[in-house]
Amino acid sequence: MSQTTAVIDLILKLSRCASTVSQAYINGELHRTDENTRDIELLRQLRMISPGIRDSFQLRGSFREFLNKALNTQRLFAIGSNVGEYFSRLGDLIDGYADAFHDSRDSDVERYEMEIREAISDIADAIDDELCILRAQITTRFGAVTTIAEKRRQNAHYQDRTQKLVLLLERFHFSDIGEQLAGNDDLALAFRSLLEDRISSFRQALIAILKHLHQYMFEFRKIEARSKRVRAFALFLNRHQDWQPADWDSHASPPEWVLHAHPLSVLGHPDTTMEEQELGLREIARAIPCSPSVRATNRPPGTLEDQEDDVAQEIVIAPPLIKLALDSYFADADENQEGISARHWWSSHPSLMTEVREDLWLLRVLGEYERRGKGQWRLSMKSDPVPGFDGNIFIRDIAIGRREM
Amino acid sequence: MFEQVAIRLLEGQFVCDASAPALFRWLQEEGNQHEVDSYLRKIGRKLTTTPNAQAFYATWLRLGNDERTEAKRVMVSIKQTIRPLVNFLTLCMDAAGNDSPPSAGDRLDYPALLNTVASNQNLIERLREFATMGKEFAVTGDSSSKGMLEKVFNQMLKTGYIAVYNREQESYRFTGKIDYFFQILEFLDENEEGVREPDVAENDDQSTLKFG
Question: How big is the A-B interface in CB pairs under 8 Å?
């Protein structure tokens, strides 16, 4: 069985136990049930789980670390990279390689060469992983934890870890590992391209991260103060439902925040006289949808509708009583040449004169006499002059009769 | 860039990373700030940043009678904003189980918040309190948690404290204007009588009752 087939075989077996592995990873432990017995046995054979206490199982450390790295979870915080150990191992391997080379143990030399290449690659990967984790923490501002206290604790932890890594890289920079590998072209090339050339960029990235972490430490203090203030304000507002802040705008030197300049409604107009704008304006004009055409709607000619009840409604307008009285008086006068006294007629027709005063009646009779024409009617008047000779007279009575023709 | 920044500032807007990232980045350059500030000063205004440099906005250069009238308008608006905004901030903090208040750029997922609020009676009550804080929060039709929270979000959008981040996912971001609000709270905390009370924990501890 080739190595490639072994890897595929392992991954296929693991995929069959995916649910059990996931459960063990999330819960931290696994208890045997009817459903997972086969998975547990398989995982034990593959050395992926180990027995815990009280009949439980847990993922082996190396497998758990692999999942942590692959999933980039906040659990990495607890693990940390082990770059120092990788460097130490590299040093040991180079020493072993030198000894095997001097003793002409060719097979050992070959093995050491392979292991040194792996160790160099492990160091580069570990630093890469470390940078990746640190960047993720910085971007999210330790978003995996919610409390400020925990954020501060994580910040302190990562500051310490980053500081150690920076020092380690500085020490490594001045080591003679490069010279020790100079005799082997392949190893020297791997060391130079994978590690040595990247050390300065790693170091710069770590220093930048360190600066951020220092800044966060300061910011967390501010956030903590802000948090207390918001909580205190919320409590204060709950207790004082009618509270309003003072009118700080009336203060002699008001705070800056109250001087926020009021919004202007900014509107521009195109200059239609500019030739270079003509094209753009034409485009805009074309894009404007046509307005719906205006249509004059004339009212159709009316038609007469047949009415069921063709009888015209009669409206009776009753003439006023005074008019009836005048007509009646003049009718009586028409038959009497001697003349009929208006006052006598007034008193003898109370039903027609309920709303007309006697003096007004005399005036209306005079007016009617003027209107009907003096040629047909004869007027005799009983009157007294008004004292003072102003031309006015007191009318005592009038009598109207038909003039003899 | 200058034109867009100047117009936004003249329109009374806050230029921040959440609402206008490109303009904000441009305005962070010292030379550009100077250029905009010089322009604003010619028309009686100046460029101002919030305390943590999370947003830029325009303030009056001098304080005459006209500006006093405008300052009064701003003060009235702040008076109307304090209570609902503090309530909104604490609601977000409690729903997320977070003991730090949101800051500029923090993401706010409407569906997640609604889900948490709707499943917690205490948070629903807190949501109802908004209706007592002004007619703009009063819900006329849909009085469910969704309807109420939607009303609050719309109001926060209108006042510019949050901005749409992803419309499809109904995701929002707190804008730099929140920094301006914290500045106001800090000022009132330090200058208003009675606001700064003894420690919350000491005063609010109802579990320690004394008998006899």
Answer: 133
Domain housing A351: 321-402
Question: In chain A, which residues have their Cβ closer than 8 Å to the Cβ of B89?
Answer: 230, 234
Contacts of B123 in chain A (CB under 8 A): none
Q: How many structural domains does chain A have? A: 3
- The answer to whether residue A171 is domain-embedded is yes
Q: Are residues A21 and A126 in the same domain?
A: no
Are the Cβ atoms of B63 and A236 closer than 8 angstroms? no
Do A37 and A148 sit in the same domain of this protein?
A: no
What residues pair up with B46 in beta bridges, in sequence order?
Answer: B59
List, as one string, the DSSP characters of B140-153: SS--SHHHHHHHHH
The set of long-range contacts for B137-142, using a CB threshold of 8 Å and a minimum separation of 24, is B137/B84
Assess whether A35 and A132 both reside in one domain: no
Hunting for tokens 């060469």 — which residue is that? A113
pLDDT tens, N- to C-terminus, chain A (405 residues): 455 688 888 888 888 888 888 888 877 778 888 888 888 888 888 888 887 666 778 788 788 778 866 665 444 444 445 677 777 788 788 888 888 888 888 888 888 888 888 788 777 777 877 787 777 777 776 766 667 777 778 778 887 878 877 877 777 777 777 777 777 787 888 788 777 787 788 888 888 888 888 877 777 778 888 888 888 888 888 888 888 888 888 887 888 888 888 887 767 777 777 777 788 888 888 888 777 666 667 777 888 776 665 555 667 777 888 888 899 999 988 888 788 899 999 888 888 787 788 888 988 998 988 888 777 888 888 888 877 767 788 888 999 988 876
Measured in angstroms, the CA of A217 and the nearest CA of chain B are apart by 14
Query: DSSP states of A157-183 as a string?
Result: HHHHHHHHHHHHHHHHHTSSHHHHTTT
Residue B67 in tokens: 């500006």
Q: Note whether A110 and A218 are same-domain residues.
A: yes
Query: Does residue A196 form part of some domain?
Result: yes
Among A48, A69, A90, residue at a domain's last position: A69
Predicted ipTM of the assembly? 0.82
